[in-house]
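Quick log. Single chain, no ligands specified.
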Amino acid sequence: MELTRAADYALRGVLYLSLQPENNICIISEIAERMDIPEGFLARIFQILGKSGIIRSHRGKKGGFSLAKLPEQIHMKEVIEAMEGPLYLNRCLSDFGDCSRKELCSLHEVWVDVQETAIKTLEGTHFDQLAKRTAEKLAGKG
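-> predicted structure:
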């Protein structure tokens, strides 16, 4: 399983906004430069994240982007699914890829366990935690 570049960049962008003081508005060029993301690609990603209710777009002379919620209210799975849709480790676990062999297949049980563990980790990892860890690393503490 590998995240798309868009999902990776979305996570980086939300992390950057999570590092900012509450209600701080950041311009796209600053975020792109600091997080090493192509600016045009980040603009498209932020449109999607805006429609998903994760970030907020601010128009005008002092426009830019901010989080639409507090960092502790946003988890990694939410951002990934905004970009990629529902997460499925294997197509036999998806709603539309119901496997006719799952009753006979010993692999199915393993895929279910791995997916449940991954989802629990992603849902349990909020951006306030990630921002704190990042700030510590930047300060040379981690």
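The longest strand covers residues 55-58.
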